[in-house]
Amino acid sequence: MFCMKFITYILFSESISRYYTGHTHDLQNRLIEHNHGETSSIKSGVPWKVVWTSVFPTRAEAMKMETQIKKRGAKRFLSNLEGNFEH
Q: What CATH architecture does domain 6-79 belong to?
């Protein structure tokens, strides 16, 4: 039986010092799309690198985490993780 997983992710762009949060079922492909400028709102930040991920069994759970991160802000979310993540 095939079980699809969903990933909530945070990307960071050193060129513009910004974070981007999203969710997908195929992170490798999504990162390629972002780094080829296929997402117009963030194409100015190419290249993006993955700095955090979490896997969820449903899209709804991944979207809920994405919303929570966006409400708080990715930088603040990451800084509250154990080890005080910094860029």
A: 3-Layer(aba) Sandwich (3.40)
